[in-house]
C-alpha cells in the first residue's frame, strides 16, 4: 500500500472525537501526545506515577475540561473506571539510560505487567492498543539502517537489558494479544527524539550538550565522537503517531529521522547556537550502540510523506525552551 | 577457574541437606530434579499448575516424607509459607512449540511474573534463585556453536517470541535482581533434552519419532532433514544442574550435548532401534532454527568434565520407557 502524496492522509486530526487513555502522560513524549489530542478535540485520560514523568507536565493540562489525570503505577493495574475507551496508548517507561539503570526492576515491570495491564484494559473496552516500543530493540545493530524486519543484536544480560528486553517482551505480548485475543494493536519503534519538556537530567546527548553549553561547561563526548545517531524532533514523532493510529497495521513501524550525525557534528551545531568552551572525551558506556538509523520505507508506505524539522532548527527551538525554563 | 579432573567436583550430592522449592515440578525436567534431590536427602517443595506438567509426575513422589506439593500458577504468586528455603529453582514454563503456541500469554507471564515471583521469594528467604533458561535465547543463530557471549538472533514478534522473549526477559530480570538486590542467582541455558517422562504430545522431534516409529507411522521430517540439533539425555542435564548449584557464578551457562546430528541421522538411529515404514517430509515451521549446538567451554571451566550418554543409548532407554507407558 503506497499513498500518493496528493491524497490527504487520515490522522487523529480529522477523526471523530476519541477517548484516549495515555500511560506515561507526564513524560516527555506522553505530554506532547496529550497536548496534540486535546488540541484536536479528543478526550484524554493521563496516567503516570512520576517515576520519570514530571508533575509540571500534568500541570499543563490539569484545568482542561477534556483532561483527567490518574496517579498510578500501571505495572500494578490501571484504575480507570470511566466511559468506554477508544484507545489505550502505553507510553509509560523510564527511557533514558541513567533512569532505567536506576530503576531496572521497575523498567522491566512496566514493559511486562504494564503492557499487559494496558492490553487487558483495551481488550475489556474493545479499544485499540498502541505500544511505544523503541529502536533499542535493535541493540547494537549489524544491519544499517535498521528495517523493521531486522531482529536486532541485544545483550540479554547487560546493564541495558532491563530496558531493551522489557521492550522486546512488550512487543511479543502485544503480538500475542493481537493474534490470540484479537486486540487491535499498533507498535512503533521510536528512534532518538528530542525537544521541549525533556527532563533536564535526562542524560541523553542533546539534553546534556544543551545544558552543558548553556552553563559554559565542556561538552562530554563518549568514545571518539564518531558514533552516529539520528535525531527526531518531537513534533515529527507526534505527527507519525497521529497518522498511524488510523492505519490498520499491526507489526512494528519505525518512527525517526533518517538524517545521521556523528557526535562531533552535533557538537558543531550546538557550538553555532551557543558559545561553549571545550569538549571532554569519556569512555564509551557498556553496550552503547555505535550506529542507529531508521529505515523508513515501511512508514512511508503506510502513512505517506511527513516533513522533518532540521536538526539545526530543532536544536534552536529546544535551546530557547530550555533557556526559558532555566 | 579450571577444575582438574582428579579433584572431586562439589554438587548437591555432597552438600548438607537443603530445602529446595521447584516450580514446574510436574514437568519433564522438573520431575527429574525432584527425584534427584529427594534421593540425595534434600527436602523438596514442588509447585505446578499442570498447564503442561503431568499429575503422574507428582504422583511419583506424593508419598515421599520429604516432598510437599503445592498446586498453583506461579505467575500469580507462589503460596509457600513454610520454613526457610535454601533455593528457589524456576523450571515452570510450557517448553515445546505446540504447547507454548497454544498458551502464548501464559508462557509470557511465567517468564515475567513467574520469574519475578520466584526472585521475590528467594530474596525474602535469603535463598538462591536458579533460572532454567533455554538455547532458544540464541534464536536462529549466526554464530555456531553458540557461546554464552553470543547475543542471539530472535524474532521479537514471531510466533515463537512468546517463549524466546519470555526467557530473554527472565534472564534480564534475574540479572537485575542479582545486581540491584543482591540475590544469589544462577542461569542455565538448556539445549534440546530428551528422556523418560517427556509428554507424549510434546511435539519435539525425539518424542515424535519414537511415537511414530512405535505406532508404525511414517516419521515426519521438516524441511529436507539437513537441519542439525544436539540432544542431551536428561540425566546429563540434571548432573550439570546439581553441580552448578554449588558454583558461585551468576551469568548464563550452556548445558547441552555437543554431538550434532542432522534429522536424517536421527531417523537412522530410530530406524536401528524400531522398525519403521517411511519418512514424510513437511515444510519447515516458521522461524525454526537451522542449527543449534552448545559451546560448552564455560561449563567445563566451571564444573569440570561430565559424562554424556550417547544418543543411541539414550534413545534406547527412552524407547523402553515409552513402550512401558504405552
TrEMBL record, chains A, B:
<protein>
    <submittedName>
        <fullName>Epimerase</fullName>
    </submittedName>
</protein>
<feature type="domain" description="NAD-dependent epimerase/dehydratase">
    <location>
        <begin position="20"/>
        <end position="245"/>
    </location>
</feature>
<dbReference type="Pfam" id="PF01370">
    <property type="entry name" value="Epimerase"/>
</dbReference>
<dbReference type="InterPro" id="IPR044516">
    <property type="entry name" value="UXS-like"/>
</dbReference>
<keyword id="KW-0210">Decarboxylase</keyword>
<keyword id="KW-0520">NAD</keyword>
<keyword id="KW-0456">Lyase</keyword>
<dbReference type="InterPro" id="IPR001509">
    <property type="entry name" value="Epimerase_deHydtase"/>
</dbReference>
<dbReference type="InterPro" id="IPR036291">
    <property type="entry name" value="NAD(P)-bd_dom_sf"/>
</dbReference>
Amino acid at each position: 500500500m503506497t499513498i500518493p502524496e496528493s491524497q490527504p492522509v487520515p490522522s487523529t486530526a480529522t477523526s471523530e472525537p476519541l477517548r484516549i487513555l495515555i500511560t506515561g502522560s507526564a513524560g516527555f513524549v506522553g505530554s506532547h501526545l496529550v497536548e496534540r489530542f486535546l488540541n484536536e478535540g479528543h478526550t484524554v485520560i493521563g496516567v503516570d506515577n512520576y517515576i520519570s514523568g514530571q508533575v509540571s507536565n500534568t500541570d499543563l493540562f490539569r484545568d482542561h475540561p477534556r483532561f483527567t489525570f490518574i496517579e498510578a503505577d500501571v505495572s500494578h493495574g490501571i484504575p480507570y473506571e470511566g466511559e468506554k475507551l477508544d484507545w489505550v496508548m502505553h507510553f509509560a517507561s523510564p527511557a533514558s539510560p541513567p533512569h532505567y539503570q536506576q530503576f531496572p526492576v521497575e523498567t522491566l515491570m512496566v514493559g511486562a505487567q504494564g503492557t499487559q495491564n494496558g492490553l487487558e484494559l483495551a481488550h475489556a473496552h474493545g479499544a485499540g492498543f498502541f505500544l511505544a516500543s523503541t529502536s533499542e530493540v535493535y541493540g547494537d545493530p549489524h544491519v544499517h539502517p535498521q528495517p523493521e524486519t531486522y531482529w536486532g543484536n541485544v545483550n540479554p544480560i547487560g546493564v541495558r537489558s532491563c530496558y531493551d528486553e522489557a521492550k522486546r517482551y512488550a512487543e511479543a505480548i502485544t503480538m500475542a494479544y493481537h493474534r490470540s485475543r484479537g486486540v487491535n494493536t499498533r507498535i512503533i519503534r521510536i528512534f532518538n527524539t528530542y525537544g521541549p519538556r525533556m527532563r533536564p537530567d535526562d542524560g541523553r546527548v542533546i539534553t546534556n550538550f544543551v545544558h552543558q553549553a548553556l552553563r559554559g561547561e565542556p561538552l562530554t563526548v563518549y568514545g571518539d565522537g564518531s558514533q552516529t545517531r539520528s535525531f527526531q524532533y518531537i513534533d515529527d514523532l507526534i505527527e507519525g503517531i497521529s497518522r498511524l493510529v488510523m492505519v490498520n497495521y499491526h507489526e512494528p513501524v519505525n518512527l525517526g529521522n533518517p538524517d545521521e550525525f556523528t557526535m562531533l557534528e552535533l557538537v558543531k551545531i550546538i557550538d553555532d547556537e551557543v558559545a561553549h568552551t571545550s569538549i571532554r572525551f569519556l569512555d564509551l558506556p557498556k553496550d552503547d550502540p555505535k550506529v542507529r538509523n531508521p529505515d523508513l520505507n515501511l512508514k512511508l508506505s503506510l502513512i505517506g510523506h511527513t516533513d522533518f524539522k532540521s536538526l539545526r532548527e530543532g536544536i534552536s527551538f529546544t535551546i530557547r525552551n530550555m533557556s526559558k525554563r532555566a
